[in-house]
Amino acid sequence: KNEVEQSPQNLTAQEGEFITINCSYSVGISALHWLQQHPGGGIVSLFMLSSGKKKHGRLIATINIQEKHSSLHITASHPRDSAVYICASAGWGGSEKLVFGKGTKLTVNP
Amino acid sequence: GAVVSQHPSRVICKSGTSVKIECRSLDFQATTMFWYRQFPKQSLMLMATSNEGSKATYEQGVEKDKFLINHASLTLSTLTVTSAHPEDSSFYICSAPAAGTSGYGYGYTFGSGTRLTVV
């Protein structure tokens, strides 16, 4: 059974700081997802990774398959980045259900 | 991009009544829909997986007679909470695999969620 763990659980930063959120998983996966959940509950899919690194604006996601570890980085953080960030692992096949981490609550202060 | 439209966003109902939540895929066909429940400050928990034209698959501990799922078309999946009780109060959210989401390949798109309060 795959277990997904995130750290830290809570993170407070000042505007402009570089943010790193970590995610580790216990078994081989087909892909690792990073999601953003806003205070109202809505969820946005940020990245899907199977190897290497991806960048989208100020967000960077990396994954190390051998170490079963992924990181989400936010450069030049802004108060609007405040949200819960969730990593989720996907098994094999196109419609495999996701296994979610417990999320990291990020608060960026102005 | 692929969008899942979920309604209602909030609902308050009396104990014992039933509530239907709809998730529609816009601009793509959702052959599979995942239904999740999230209690305050907890992670998303998968309740069931619905597949168009077949019976839903429920996770262990989820009562299939209480949480009725229908996926009658490629663009609509519904979750009905029957005989709702206060302990069913939660945030319910659906998700479908969709090519092109996450901007990169075969990701998932989520509905906006339904906050159910049973009084």
Jot down its keywords.
heterodimer; A: 110 residues; six-stranded mixed sheet; B: 119 residues; mainly beta; seven-stranded mixed sheet; four-stranded antiparallel sheet; 11 strands; globular
Structure description:
By secondary structure, chain A is mostly beta strands. Helix content of chain A is 0%, strand content 58%. Chain A is built from no helices and eleven strands. In chain A, the strands form two sheets. In chain A, strands 2, 4, 5, 9, 10 and 11 form a six-stranded mixed beta sheet that branches. Chain A has a five-stranded antiparallel beta sheet with strand order 1-3-8-7-6, with no helix packed on it. In chain B, strands 2, 4, 5, 6, 9, 10 and 11 form a seven-stranded mixed beta sheet that branches. A four-stranded antiparallel beta sheet of chain B has the order 1-3-8-7, with no helix packed on it. The N and C termini of chain B lie far apart (37 Å). Chain B has no helices and eleven strands. Chain B is 0% helix and 55% strand.
Short précis:
The complex is a heterodimer of chains A (110) and B (119). With 110 residues, chain A is mainly β. Chain A is built from no helices and 11 strands.
